[in-house]
Amino acid sequence: MPALPHLKHWPAAPAMHDEAHFGDRVVRCFEQRARSVHALLEQAAQQHPDREALVSGERRETWRSLAAVAGCTATGLQIQGVQRGDRVLLLLNNGAEFVIAACALAKLGAVAVPLSVRSAAPEIEYVAAQSGAMLAISEDKLEPLLPAGLARLLASGFAGLATDPANAAPPLPALVDEEDTAVILYTSGTTGRPKGAMLTHFNIVHSAMHYQACMALGASDRSLVAVPLSHVTGLVAQMHTMLLCAGTLVLLDSFKAGAFLQLAAREKITHTLMVPAMYRLCLLQDNFAAHDLSAWRVGAYGGAPMAPATIAALATALPALTLLNCYGATETTSPATVMPVGGTTVHPESVGVAVPCGELRVVDGEGCVLPASQTGEIHIGGPMVVKGYWNNPQATAENFTAGFWHSGDLGCIDEDGFVQVLDRIKDVINRGGYKVFSSEVEAVLVQHPAVVEAAIVSYACPMLGERVMAFVSVKASVMTSATEDDLKAFCAQRLADYKVPERWSLQSEPLPRNANGKLMKRPLRDMAGAGA
Question: Which among 19, 27, 25 is positioned nearest to 401, based on CA atoms?
Answer without folding.
Answer: 25
